[in-house]
Design a protein that fits this description.
Elements lengths: L8 H12 L18 H13 L7
Helix pairs in contact: 1-2
C-alpha cells in the first residue's frame, strides 16, 4: 500500500482504515481490484504480512 517493498503493519493499518471508510474506486488498498476496499482486501494483506512478503529488486 505504501510501496516501501515490504508488506507490514503499516499496510494493514492503511487497508483497515480504507475498509472502515468504505472507499471505492481506484484505490491502492483495493488489492482484489473489485473497486471496493473491504474485508477481502484486509484478509489478503494480513495473510501476506504473515508470510513475510518482500520485494526483491536488482
Amino acid at each position: 500500500m505504501n510501496q516501501d517493498g515490504t508488506i507490514d503493519a503499516a499496510d494493514i493499518s492503511s487497508v483497515e482504515n480504507d475498509a472502515a471508510n468504505s472507499l471505492s474506486g481506484y484505490e491502492s488498498s483495493d488489492v482484489t481490484g473489485d473497486d471496493f476496499v473491504d474485508a477481502g482486501d484486509v484478509s489478503i494483506v494480513e495473510n501476506n504480512v504473515a508470510l513475510g512478503i518482500n520485494v526483491i529488486t536488482p
